[in-house]
Amino acid sequence: MLWLRLKTALQGFRDDTRGSFMVESVIALPLLFWTICATFEFFEVHRYKSVREKATYTIADMISREQAVVDDTYIDNTKLLFDEITNDDGVNELRVSIIRYNGNTDQYEVFWSEVRGTGPLFALDNDDVADAHDELPTLSHGEDVILVESVSSYDSLFDLVLQDTIRIETRVFTSIRFASQIHFDGVTN
User: What is the pTM of this model?
Assistant: First the structure.
């Protein structure tokens, strides 16, 4: 008799559907919330990187059209323009370098290199680029190329998805357009 009552109670419990929506909600809503946060976070990382790439291309294009001598004020304002385009509070770092290929020695040489912002970048010298054939474009003897590099750090909006800061690095090469060389104040070759 006790066994029959227990069996009936267990069958009733098994067939009872009251509260099933609540259980499903408790299981599904956190997963749904995480999915929405992750989607937004990945979109934001892509947007963040895309804006920095466009700003770096803009700076490279601007310098490639320069016909006057570039000085510290010009490079400082270039960094300010980069920050304005990226809509940042100046947490970016920017390096602008003019690199020349010497066909006689089959090595690259730094004509000039300037860095603005704080971070891991440093001004390039000849030792940094001399044998960088796999990193730099193929050039003719005496040809110059403008290299603009930017480094930014993306901090996660939600700690649910990305735990660490993501370092966004952008590198753009462009040719000099309207002048034979772009000189930096004090550097002549």
Answer: 0.81
